[in-house]
Amino acid sequence: RKEVEQDPGPFNVPEGATVAFNCTYSNSASQSFFWYRQDCRKEPKLLMSVYSSGNEDGRFTAQLNRASQYISLLIRDSKLSDSATYLCVVNHDYKLSFGAGTTVTVRA
Amino acid sequence: DAGVTQSPTHLIKTRGQHVTLRCSPISGHKSVSWYQQVLGQGPQFIFQYYEKEERGRGNFPDRFSARQFPNYSSELNVNALLLGDSALYLCASSLVGREEAFFGQGTRLTVV
């Protein structure tokens, strides 16, 4: 079983739409959680950390459910510039485990 | 402030050769990690170093080795290259290793 599993998508949405996707992780002892975004052939860039209480950063909202080992990301009012692959990342004992990514394409 | 820098950005090697990839972390960051990303997959953990000590190692063969220098920069070495080693090699730095990590632009290695 993969340590982090994500729906690969692609999610193809119009500008202004809301899109949400999630991931699950297998290690219940995981200590911290993140969403990264990766543009084609570029390095991953930190989008936001994810906290148990849920957190927002502008149009982005992340949720963590430790009991279900489930992490979600919601993007409101999608922009063309949100088109990217979103990587779900889990940290356990200094090791980051990445999902394979969810591809989001925002169309005009 | 400079981010994580990696060199070279691109590299072509022949099977059986050896390669050394280099990484300079963000100033003040003492932890450096290496990841391999093949097309269509998420990055896979190779090594983490903190204060020049190996703190963790992923499921990679002994052909892969790394070290961290007193200035916290790091090298990743791969011996006896195989075609399957072709990938984007990413270096990430963080303060102590448990928190957000910041990635360099990567070294794209092609083995022919």
Tally of alpha and pi helices of chain A: 0
Question: Portion of residues in helices of chain B?
Answer: under 10%
Provide the residue-averaged pLDDT of chain A.
95
User: Strand fraction band of chain B?
Assistant: over 45%
Backbone shape of chain A? globular
In which range does the helix fraction of chain A lie? under 10%
The main sheet of chain A comes to: 6 strands, mixed
Annotation, overall tally of beta strands of chain B: 11
Question: Between the first and last Cα atoms of chain A, what is the distance in angstroms?
Answer: 38 Å
SSE pattern of chain B: EEEEEEEEEEE
Beginning-to-end CA distance, first to last residue of chain B: 37 Å
* Anisotropy-based shape of chain B: globular
Q: How many DSSP H or I helices of chain B?
A: 0
| Poorly predicted runs of chain A | none
State the oligomer: heterodimer
Strand content of chain A: over 45%
Radius of gyration computed on alpha carbons of chain A:
13 Å
The unreliable regions of chain B are none
The SS-based structural class of chain B is mainly beta
